[in-house]
Please model this.
Amino acid sequence: MFSSRILWNDLLVHDLVDELHLTIFPVIAGAGTPLFDGQPGVTLKLIATRTWEDSGNILACYEVGRKKS
Model:
């Protein structure tokens, strides 16, 4: 899901996300929208990374820890 921070934050809250794939672009903006605004703690485990030649972009793939019932 692209560019829908509110929706995927709600999905995380309801334990409906298995993985997060975050692409990091090397730009210093100085301000912006927080990714996990108001989000309770979530455990993330790095499971894969990818970089592209001649680019500073990074793809980081995380497994989302399950809430214990």
